[in-house]
Design a protein that fits this description.
Blueprint lengths: L1 H18 L4 H4 L1 H4 L1 H25 L4 H12 L4 H9 L4 H29 L10 H25 L1 H29 L1 H32 L4 H12 L3 H10 L14 H28 L1
Length: 290
């Protein structure tokens, strides 16, 4: 029930919170800022999975954790990256737009790449992974809630102004609860493999944050946009990662959540240790240059 019912509902609610305040005009930045958008999406959709794959091999992660790490890397940024971009005085509109576009694209990209991952790491045969079912499920619990949030924003802006903060707070609480449950369900595995999983996930975030900063500098975009590119490159939707791990049919026997969900859960718990100092640094820098 947790994987099949509760987790999808929680993820749908979190994605609904992303849709609140999102407008069709936010998608137009794809055409208004093609250079910035291109590097943001390239980092997320291409370099992030490549870096994750290299780290999985480098740290020789067990098959389940390797698949879970790849699933995490295939997921786009979530509401967290938008919030952090705002706190860091980055470009929140750009952050929202990148998250929204990447989230919609993930419905098409994630199922196929997940099927490849489970086969490559020998967890199960790709034929046992129902790509169509995963794509449809992701559409229903990610794209549809975002669209509902956008419709409310367009046709009931007063209501959205009243509920957006409580909804965001509830989404944060639900995110923390899911992370805690995933870690608790796989505590023994975490204790056994944290010495390799922890450093791998830490390096994944640090490498991608650095790549985001470097790519922004190379493209000569302003400090606020560079901050946003870095956050969108280095912050992933851990809740979606946990949910997708439950969809691929590799659930651990007797566990409430699959072992493949552990990397996303650990990532969701530890990311703030790196992101808080990064955000404070970029905030002071952007305030000085802004």
């Amino acid at each position: 029930m947790l994987v099949n019912v509760i987790l999808p509902i929680v993820l749908a609610f979190i994605m609904f919170s992303l849709g609140l305040g999102l407008k069709v005009a936010d998608f137009s930045r794809v055409f208004k800022q093609p250079k910035v958008f291109s590097i943001g999406l390239l980092n997320q959709l291409v370099f992030l999975p490549l870096v994750a794959f290299a780290l999985v091999k480098l740290f020789s992660l067990p098959p389940m954790l390797a698949v879970g790490t790849m699933i995490l890397a295939l997921c786009p940024g979530g509401v967290t990256s938008n919030m952090l971009a705002h706190i860091a005085k980055g470009s929140r509109p750009l952050s929202i737009s990148l998250t929204a576009v990447a989230s919609l694209l993930s419905v098409l990209t994630v199922p196929f790449l997940v099927a490849w991952s489970v086969t490559h790491f020998g967890v199960t045969d790709s034929r046992s992974v129902d790509v169509t079912a995963i794509a449809m499920t992701m559409f229903l619990i990610t794209a549809v809630p975002v669209l509902v949030g956008m419709l409310l924003t367009a046709y009931a802006p007063t209501l959205v102004d009243r509920i957006s903060q409580p909804v965001s707070l509830i989404a944060l609480v639900l995110f923390v609860a899911i992370v805690v449950l995933a870690i608790k369900a796989n505590w023994d595995s975490l204790m056994k493999d944290f010495s390799s999983l922890g450093p791998a996930l830490a390096l994944l975030m640090l490498v991608m944050l650095t790549l985001g900063l470097v790519s922004g500098k190379l493209l000569r975009v302003n400090s606020a946009e560079t901050t946003t590119i870095a956050l969108e490159s280095g912050v992933q939707n851990a809740t979606l990662g946990i949910a997708v791990a439950g969809f691929v049919g590799v659930q651990a026997v007797g566990a409430g959540l699959p072992e493949a969900a552990l990397p996303a859960a650990v990532y969701g718990a530890m990311m703030y240790f790196f992101l808080v100092p990064f955000v404070l640094w970029r905030r002071s820098l952007n305030r000085a240059t802004g």
